[in-house]
Design brief:
This protein has eleven helices and twelve strands. It is an alpha+beta fold. It starts with a helix and ends in an 11-residue tail after the last helix.
């Protein structure tokens, strides 16, 4: 190991130890800290200045009963992270790397809150850019490029235009948008943004974006839809040639446990009823999926959906009434 690297690591470990000591009791004198750390009082003063440079509030007082103490709000375990490490940690928490574990989403949110509390002030603004610009409906999504997520999150926070290449109708085109929110589904990351060339709200899959950049042109926020609800309804229904709406005789929580969030929107309609909105390539496909949920239901929209119910019912009745002749058997 390089001697300079070894010395730097030793300094970092000593500074962490110093922070731990400052958290153990309210006030420490310089000689007491020097004795515990095995260094001179002068080294203690230098380490205190390192903590202040990192943004930690270390107060010093003179006279009897004086010494060093941490300022308010500094009583959580310290995190000595540089800018890239802090941003990478925040992105990892928000991308739901552990969504396969029950309750990991809540744990990630708690961890992100603690991260915000213990980071130096100069890094909090960057980390909060993600937490304030992200919504979700579901977990277990595939990872997205953290650099793209951070670029878009900053653009949402700073209210500046963004540009990227995006495939559409077999061609890749440059898109100019006013980014509003990043939305995480149970499968993918999306950006809800106002498309300046189409003069309307659009959602874009982050994994399809290339050459993503934030610009310096600021925009005035427009009245925006509920980001998570808009994107969920879009990916579950509006992108398909056929959309349908059902009234299902079961609690919303029960049905949500049976249908992935990206496959249908489930809205509560009383304690024992819910509305299911979904899309597919055919109405028959939608009917079969709702039928397989195992609950009583009513077809609401579109009007031809009821005709398809009757046609499908006749096919099922016909299939159930048909008896095939028993196969011939030969005597051995």
């Amino acid at each position: 190991m390089d001697p300079a690297t070894s010395q730097e690591r030793g300094t970092t470990e000593r500074v962490l130890t110093l922070l731990g000591l400052l958290q153990q009791r309210q006030v420490w004198t310089g000689p007491e800290l020097a004795d515990r750390l095995g260094v001179t009082p002068r080294t203690v003063r230098r380490d205190i200045e390192r903590l202040r440079t990192l943004g930690y509030q270390v107060q010093a007082s003179q006279g009897v009963g004086g010494g060093y103490q941490l300022g308010p709000g500094q009583d959580l375990p310290p995190l000595l992270l540089d800018d890239e490490e802090a941003i990478a940690t925040a992105v990892s928490l928000l991308t739901g790397a552990s969504d396969a574990i029950a309750g990991a989403g809540d744990a990630a949110l708690r961890a992100l809150t603690k991260l915000d509390q213990v980071l130096p002030t100069r890094l909090r603004h960057e980390v909060r850019a993600l937490s304030a610009s992200v919504e979700s409906f579901g977990g277990g999504r595939t990872p997205a490029d953290p650099d793209i997520l951070m670029t878009l999150a900053k653009a949402c926070r700073d209210q500046v235009e963004a540009g990227f290449d995006y495939p559409s109708a077999g061609q890749t085109r440059q898109r100019r948008v006013e980014p509003y929110r990043l939305v995480a589904s149970d499968r993918r990351w999306y950006l809800l943004a106002y498309d300046l060339d189409r003069d309307d709200w659009r959602n874009f899959r982050v994994d399809r974006m290339t050459h993503v950049s934030a610009r310096t042109w600021h925009y005035h926020p427009r009245p925006a839809p509920d980001a998570a609800a808009y994107v969920q309804e879009s990916v579950a229904s509006r992108v398909y040639p056929h959309q349908a709406r059902f009234l299902v005789h079961a609690p919303a929580d029960t049905v949500r446990a049976q249908i992935p969030p990206s496959a249908a929107v489930v809205r509560q309609r009383g304690s024992e009823l819910c509305e299911v909105i979904s899309g597919a390539g055919s109405l028959d496909f939608l009917l079969m999926h709702v039928l397989l949920l195992g609950h009583d239901f009513e077809a609401l929209d579109p009007p031809e959906l009821r005709k398809r119910c009757h046609a499908l019912a006749e096919k099922l009745l016909s299939a159930g009434a048909t008896t095939s002749p028993a196969p011939d058997t030969e005597e051995p």
